[in-house]
Amino acid sequence: MEIDPRPRPVDRDRRRFLKALGVGALSLPFSRLLLSSVSDAQVVSSPLRLVGIFNPLGTAFEYWRPQASGSSFTLDFPNSILAPLQKYRGQLIVLDGIDCVPEIKYGDFGHEASPSVLTGDVNKQMAGVRPTVESLDQFLADQPAIGGQTKFRSLELSVGGCKYPERVMSWKAGGVPVPRMLNPYETFSRVFAGYAAPTADGGTPGPDQATVDRAFRQKGVLDYVLADVGRLKRKLGPVELQKLDQHLQSVSDLENRLTAGMLDGGTGSPAPTAACAPPTGIPDQATWKGLYAEDPNNRIYFDSPKYGSFMFDHVQEWSDLQIQMIAQALACDLTRIVTLQYFEDGVDGGAPWAQPAVPPSDPWYDPHVCTHADTGAPGRSEAIATYQRWFSAQVAKLMDALAAIPEGNGTVLDHTLIFWTNENGEVHDLANIPMVLAGGANGLFQMGRWLQYPASGQTPHNELLVSIANAFPGVNINSYGNTATYNWGTGALPNL
């Protein structure tokens, strides 16, 4: 049987029907069943999420780069920085040779790259020049089809204090930095306190009548689509029928998502699943709460008049808590856009959470000192690799958490794109910034690759921002970071 690939006209009654319900035809994943052949329709998928992760102090490329292994690559070798991600090798794209061109050409050389990472704009702190372009996370959060679908358009978290409030990843247009949630108690209280996923017995308060009416209308649209599909089904061959069966399975999931169980006595919150398990508290909550009450901005995280060095001594717990709450915020669809920033330019002193075996007497005890040392100094590269491997392990923990949460026909990790970047390459160099894409990204990127770009200092990371942005529904741009003053060219990152 041959299917005409041309879209079929939609009769005016259907158009009026959909319009009267307040649901545009193209906003329904199943609307293509009304518009064209079923064979052209795509399986309804879970929403795509973005998690941007930043950490400081550059790398040692001999230990960051993968090693070739036949036609593939491996991350499993001595001192490998990316070794914790070896089990996820098939869900990574290691980007080698991407340059922070705005900072190379016009920025301050050193530790001021974090504002440029997602804005693609110039940050020249010592001259008082801030990015005027909104960061990619805020751009996506502002899109009705992305940030407009969730309780929180975006979440900005941190591990490490805010010593320099302007050295942040997230920016509003016009040079306004977006504050981070520095304390796990702040994250918990803002995102989850008072939130309860609905129970199977409808134990949470019910919705208002307007919400119920909307659910009935949305269900009516799906019923109408199903009836239309039933008529089409009699005319399809085996291949088209198989595709249609996949669609019909997805309709049930979509109906549950739209009506949130209200038509069966539910609440109007996200449908109850084992995946959405919001925390009811956090470990050491009283102490974290006390620290937050003592200094909500928490610019100095090393010591507290009352709690001493608790935060410094609990950096691993700090990271674990933020990661767990990110995973649950995504699972509960409270947000689809998250940034997680580790420190700004490291710490002035040791990092025992990352280097527990390095004593204070060791010349490489302070990771910040390592970045300023001669690259050929004995032991320097190994010390940097140990420090940077800790951040790699945190990314792996996030991937573990997301992979453990079932969603649709996969996991939350399958429907998430993680963009992990450093602030520097070698030493204070802003060329060849270590960058990794991770996760399933809804199948929009071919993962399991190590992409190497020319070491020219002229491969702007702006192109990567274009590629990431265009992966999201309703976004179609050809440049990012360009202003009346600066132009970084157009186009997406080649070969991605």
List the helices and strands and how they pair.
Elements (H helix, E strand, L loop, with lengths): L11 H9 L11 H4 L13 E7 L5 H4 L2 E3 L2 E3 L17 E5 L4 H6 L7 H6 L16 H6 L13 E5 L11 E2 L3 E2 L6 H9 L16 H25 L4 H22 L25 H10 L15 H4 L1 H17 L5 E6 L24 H6 L7 H24 L2 E2 L2 E2 L4 E7 L12 E4 L10 E4 L8 H10 L26
Parallel strand pairs: 1-8, 1-11, 4-13, 5-8
Antiparallel strand pairs: 2-3, 4-12, 6-7, 9-10, 11-12
Strand order, sheet with most strands = 5-8-1-11-12-4-13
Structural class, judged by helices and strands?
Answer: alpha/beta
Helix content: 25-40%
What is the level-2 CATH architecture name of the largest domain? 3-Layer(aba) Sandwich
- Compute the average pLDDT: 81
DSSP helical segment count:
15
User: What is the CATH class of the largest domain?
Assistant: Alpha Beta
- Multimerization state: single chain
Which blocks of ≥5 consecutive residues have pLDDT under 50? 1-44, 200-212, 249-273
What profile does the largest beta sheet have?
7 strands, mixed
Q: What is the straight-line distance between the termini?
A: 36 Å
